[in-house]
Amino acid sequence: DWILHNEEFIREEELNISKEDRGYQFGDGIYEVVRVYEGNLFTAEEHIDRFYESAEKIKIVIPYTKDVFHKMLYDLVEMNDINNGQVYVQITRGHALRQHHFPESTSPVVVAYTKTVERPLELMRNGAKGAFIEDVRWLRCDIKSLNLLGNVMAKQEAHEKGSFEAILHRGEVVTEGSSSNMYGVKDGIIYTHPATNLILNGITRRVILQLSQNLGIEVQEMAFTKAQALEMDEFFMSSTTAEIMPITEIDGNPIGQGIPGELTKNLQQAFEANLKLAVKM
Ligand code: PMP
């Protein structure tokens, strides 16, 4: 497979990253994951916009235009002949003598690679288990930072409990998942945490808000508590790789009927239809 390294397409064996790359030492960088369906990058522009926004928030200047960047990602997918999969791309502040403050001058380092990934159809159909885990991350969760230790620790704890995803909460308030956004449905209304500094505003989340509007489903971007979560009629999560995934049980408590809810299934169908339109599947 080909790898994108700055402006060059190289082979993996040729990739050479400094021991003092700030991404490696400090997690000083940001990333994106873009889904590929039938060889097409799904919601590429939204992901690219967020990539540039995250970079700007930590004062990394991406050394090419969005159009050039888009084309490079597209070329990578084509060169690697990816049909269904994803592109992972990150940019770090680059190499410098180890010191905490930003160096006077660095060249940011971009690396992108692809992989084939199947859609998690069975979990999407049957639903997944969630576990409440305290959200101990920092206060800039709006940045898609390479610093994922808080997310990794939470996911591991959920995993050890036999759950698919960690449902993070700050005190009593549910924020998001360790790598997803969270939604509850009560009396036909969808509730989800507002897009503040406490969550990552997911691209899939944005698609869901748009689809809900098209379907005439009311959405309240309003935080809810753990106790309220357990009282929801339906619960689901979203991400680029999990798409819209029902959560049928939290910490062993069934949500609603303990099976994927009707509104969740309607949204999944709308997502599927939207996908077919977007990528002409
Ligand atoms: N929140 C967090 C913390 C995430 O890591 C992700 C996945 N990148 C999401 C939400 C979902 O975002 P998206 O729909 O853009 O994949």
Please name the defining characteristics of this protein.
single chain, 281 residues, alpha+beta, D-amino Acid Aminotransferase, Chain A, domain 2, 2 domains, six-stranded antiparallel β-sheet, 8 helices, globular, binds 4'-deoxy-4'-aminopyridoxal-5'-phosphate, Aminotrans_IV_CS
Overall description:
- The protein is α+β, with helices and mostly antiparallel strands and 281 residues long.
- The chain folds into 2 domains: 2-116, 2-Layer Sandwich (D-amino Acid Aminotransferase, Chain A, domain 1), CATH 3.30.470; 121-279, D-amino Acid Aminotransferase, subunit A, domain 2 (D-amino Acid Aminotransferase, Chain A, domain 2, Alpha-Beta Barrel), CATH 3.20.10.10.
- It contains 8 helices and 15 strands.
- It has helices spanning 22-26, 44-57, 66-79, 121-126, 149-160, 203-215, 226-230, 262-279; strands spanning 2-5, 8-11, 29-37, 40-41, 85-92, 109-116, 128-134, 165-170, 173-177, 181-186, 189-192, 219-221, 234-239, 243-250, 253-254.
- The strands form 2 sheets. Strands 7, 8, 9, 10, 11, 12, 13, 14 and 15 form a 9-stranded mixed sheet that branches.
- It binds 4'-deoxy-4'-aminopyridoxal-5'-phosphate.
- Residues 33, 151, 176, 179-181, 200, 202-205, 238-240 line the site of 4'-deoxy-4'-aminopyridoxal-5'-phosphate.
- It holds the Pfam family Aminotran_4.
- It catalyses: D-alanine + 2-oxoglutarate = D-glutamate + pyruvate.
